[in-house]
Amino acid sequence: MRHFPRITRKLCLPVLIVTTLLTQGVMAKQPAPDLLLTTATGQHKLSDYQGQVVYLDFWASWCKPCQRSFPWMNAMQQKYAGRGFTVVAINVDTDRKLADQFLSMLPATFPVAFDPEGTAPALYKVPGMPTSYLIDHTGQLRLAHQGFHIQKQDQYEQEIVALLEEMESSQ
User: Fold this and answer.
1) Residue 130 to residue 63: CA distance in whole angstroms
2) Three-state secondary-structure class, residue 115
């Protein structure tokens, strides 16, 4: 940043801080943009999961934190699927073979969609890999996280449980 004019440096920091805050925590409720999900078994829409709590995860094969997040996402899928929870992961590799190699080493027990054109991350304004969004049972974006931090796994799980309890109390 040394080469940027002083005014540019002063403007970049607040934008970076706001972006970080928005992707690390609570968001204002807003509808989750619907997506056409292309999986190994066909196509369906993200809105097909309305009525469930969804952990929408954007990932890439080269992403080291993604390698740490997959076992955790598998565990959450197994633990909470019966309560109306699902993980939906969207791979953004331009070469599908790279995603398939990743999945052969770290198989997913949840739906995995492929978006080599990057349409979905652009729509969600994904700032980096991985980025995840928690969507409530009414289809509203509620939380976002950039990165996957092992020390925050309990927090991530508590956020899922809170949305599941909210869903259960509304039924």
Assistant:
1) 7
2) coil
Cis peptide leading into residue 130 (ω within 30°): yes
Report which DSSP code applies to 34.
Answer: P
Tell me the per-residue pLDDT of 12-22, one tens digit each, with 9 for 90 and over.
Answer: 333 333 333 34
**Class of residue 161 by CB neighbours under 10 A (exposed 0-12, middle 13-18, buried 19+):** middle
Task: Return all residues near 27 (Cβ < 8 A) that are at least 6 apart.
Answer: 141, 142, 143, 144
* Element (DSSP H or E) covering residue 11: helix 6-24
Backbone angles phi, psi at 86, to 5 degrees: -145, 145
Residue 23: per-residue pLDDT: 42
Compute φ and ψ for 139, nearest 5 degrees.
90, 20
Q: pTM for the whole thing?
A: 0.84
Q: How far apart are CA 33 and CA 18, in angstroms?
A: 21
CB 136, CB 142: distance < 8 Å: yes
Those residues whose C-beta lies under 8 Å from the C-beta of residue 131, and which sit 6 or more positions away, are: 23, 57, 58, 121, 124, 144, 145, 146, 147
